[in-house]
Amino acid sequence: MEVSLQILAGATLTEMAIDGIDRCCSGYVNLKHFKRPLSILIGIIMAFCFGLDIIPLLGLETDVPLIGVILAGILMSKGSNCLADWKDKIIKC
Prior knowledge:
There is one protein chain. By secondary structure, the protein is mainly alpha-helical. It has one domain (about 1-90). Helix content is about 75%, strand content about 0%. The protein contains four helices and no strands. Helix 1 crosses helix 4 and helix 2 crosses helix 4. The longest helix has 26 residues, at about 65-90. The radius of gyration is 14 Å and the shape is globular.
């Protein structure tokens, strides 16, 4: 439960950051094609900042120390994309 809650919180923060960047830059730059790579980058940065290493949280071990942080960031970015789609569907209703 702890792992999924941390990923969900990170995904929510990543989505909020992407939405904020999109609103600030909407008059200057079209971020349509850059949202997914930007969300991956922000997710990985947030995982580093929060020290969210998913490998030990799942009870696993690895010899590559940063792989868990990178995977957590990618999961957060994927979750932010799902949250954005869900938010858009709710707004349309």
